[in-house]
Structure prediction request, 69 residues.
Amino acid sequence: MFGLGMPELLIILVIILIIFGASRLPEIGRGLGKGIKNFRESTSEKPKEIPPDTEESKGENEKTDAQAK
Prediction:
């Protein structure tokens, strides 16, 4: 785990405790957990299939491009 041992993790925990205080730690942990959960869900979802371009849609895109100029 990134080459961090128990002493390093304890030092980081103490620094976080000093900066944020004991009352905010559960709130921070909850938010971090939700973020990790959402990230895992979004990366594991099957991507939506995008239909290939058809001749009809290509013609429509060219018309709108010409009108924009």
Remarks:
- The chain has a mean pLDDT of 78.
- The two ends are 55 Å apart (CA to CA).
